[in-house]
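Throughout our pipeline, every protein is held as a single compact record rather than as scattered files. Nothing more is needed to write down the fold, since each code stands for a local backbone conformation. The record that follows is passed on verbatim for readers who wish to inspect the format.
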Amino acid sequence: MVIILSLSLTASSQSPESTKLPSHFNGAVTVTNNGISFIPTFSLGKPAVIFDLFVGKRFSFDPQFRFALEGKPWSFLFWWRYKLVTNEKFLFSIGAHPALSFKALIIPTETGTQEIIKVQRYLAGELSPRMGPIILTFLRSMLIFHLININMMYCGTLFLNCFILHLKFSQPPISTDNK
């Protein structure tokens, strides 16, 4: 009995560093007039509100809750991300999330029709390298985003493979020489 108790206490001990709270927490609320998603399959097509949260630093939890303005859920994303490489010129992160996508359906009943909300489950992963000032001095950063999405319900879009290239430019140098 004493041996089991001491093993239990030893196995559950933590260093003071591992019990610290996350070093960063923030959030944002966005209201949009068209409920657009960067992947058209997941667009709502009407006014919506989006709640973004972020907790962590190198390893983070970034949930996103999307609702139509009338209060019906649109989609919930539960991102977990890890920054593998971080420095001023290069950032490489990986991430994964389960997601819930909601859709209102009208179904016939014995007394007429009834609106129900159908939930589809998705599992997604991302690879995201971001490079700092490169190639030309006015190209400030480049993000290559690769998202793989798998529908866990085996209906609708079953597999999605998405590549996004995001370039951020500053104003290019313009000559002031008028000769």
